[in-house]
Fold this sequence. Notes:
The protein is mostly helical. The chain has 2 domains: 4-8 and 154-265, no CATH class; 16-152 and 273-297. The chain is 77% helix and 0% strand. The chain contains 11 helices and no strands.
Amino acid sequence: MATRNSASKYTGEGESTKKSGIFSLTTLFTLAVIAALIIGWNVREEYLWTAEYGLGYALGILGASLMVALLIYPLRKHYSRTPWLVFSTKTWFKIHMAMGVLGPLSILYHCNFSLGSTNSNITLAAMGLMVTSGLIGRFIYSKIHYSLFGRKIEIKELQAQRAAMHEQLDNDSLPDDILLNDLYAFEEKVMSRRDLKGNLFNMLVLGISSRWLLFRLVKKVRVLVNHKDHLKGATAQERKDYFQTTCQHLSSYIGTLKKIAGLGFYERLFSLWHMLHLPIFFMLVITAIAHVYAVHWY
C-alpha cells in the first residue's frame, strides 16, 4: 500500500515548506501593513501632520523615493553581472515587493488618507492603479511559481509529477468506475483544451469542477473502504489510513492537472501583464513629477 508521504514527494511541497521562515516574515509584514492602514485611517481627522512640511513632507519624499527605487529590480534582472547592484536578483525581488507596499503606504500617510488638489488626486489615482497592477501581477506570479519566492514551475516537471501520481493511483487498487469513468475522463477533457479559448474556459470552470469531482471521488472511496470485499483482513486503522492516503493521492493528482491546464494560460497572461505594468509605472512617475512641480512652484 502507498504511504502518505509518497504523495508529497511529487507535489512541490519541498519548495514551500523550506520557505516557512519567509512565509512567517511575510505574514508579519502583511499584518503590520494592515495595522498601519487601520491606524492611519482612524487618525486622519486628527491632523497630526500635513503634506506641506515636517513629517508629512518627509513621508512624501520617502514614498516617492521607494517608488522610483522599484526600477532597481528590473535593472538587476537585465544586468545580472553588474557589480554595483550588490544583492542577488532574488533578494532584489523581495526588496521590490516590500518597497511596492511601503512606498504607497508612505504616500497615504503623506496625504493623511485624504484627497487634495486635482494634481495630487491624479497622482494618487495613478498610484492606486500601480498598486492594483502589482497585486494582479503577484496573483499571476503565484500561479507559475512555487510559493512567493520559489522557482518557476516547469511543464516537464508537472508532467513527471502527473506520471508518478498516476502510478500511485494504480497502486491504490481503485476500481475503474472511480479512475477510468470519473478521474481519467475528467483529465482527458481538461487536457484536450489546448488553445487560448480552451485554456480560458479551463480557468473559469476548473476550480468548481475539480472540487466537485474530488467530492464525488471521496464519497466513492469512503463507500469502497467500508465494503467488506475490499481490503480483506485489514483492521479499522488500516482502512482509515488507506482512505486518507488515497484521498490525498486523488487530491494531489487533480491539483497537478489544474496546474498543467493553467500553466500555459498564466504564462501568457504574465507576459501581457509585464507589457502593461511598466507603462503604468512611468505614468505614475510623470504624474508624481507634475505634482511635485505644482506644489513647489505654484
